[in-house]
C-alpha cells in the first residue's frame, strides 16, 4: 500500500496486484472484512472512508461528511462495526456500522501546550478528566477528574487552564498546577462550546474565545 495506491500480494512476493490506483488522495489506514471480502481505508487527502471488494471492484464512499484527517481504521465484521481515529482539530475515536450509519464518538481528546512550563495538557471527554505530562509523555498526572462533566476545548494562560464543557455548556478554569481554585466563568452559552483560546489584551487582563457557530469573546 502506497499513499495513493492500494495493492495486494502473496506473502512470498511471487505475485502482486494494484487494486485501487486512482481517485485517492492519501491513504492513512486500511483494514479487511474477511467475512464479506471487503477492504476499508481512510483517505486523509479527501477526508473520506471508502470500501471496495478485495480486488478493488464495487468501490464506494462509506463516510464523506464530518471527517477531519482520518487515520487508523479497524473493522469488527462479526459485530458489524467500523472504528477509526481522526487527527484533525478535534482528535477523537469514532464508530459506525459497516455502511457508515449510526456514527458515534467514543473518545474526544483535546490538547494544548504550556510553553512556559513545558507541559502538555490533554482532556478525555469520555472519562471526564484533564491530564498533563512532559513533552516525552513522562510524569503523567490527572489534574481534574469528574469535575469537568464533559471537557472539550483546552487552553493554558498564566497559572490557569481553561476548558469548555459540553454538558454544562460553560467555560471553566482551574489552577494548572493543582487543579484547585476551579471557577465557572460562563455558564449560559446557548450552544455547545467547542475550542477555546486564552489570550492577553491591551489592558493586561485575559480574554478567551470559544468557537461556536459564531465566535464570541468574553473578558475574564
From TrEMBL:
Lineage: Eukaryota, Metazoa, Chordata, Craniata, Vertebrata
Name the record gives this protein: Uncharacterized protein
LDL-receptor class B repeat ranges, renumbered to this chain: 37-79, 118-160
UniProt cross-references to SUPFAM superfamilies, sorted A to Z: YWTD domain
Keywords: Disulfide bond, EGF-like domain, Glycoprotein, Repeat, Signal
Listed PROSITE patterns: LDLRB
Matches recorded under SMART domains: LY
Organism the protein comes from: Oryzias latipes
Keyword Membrane found: no
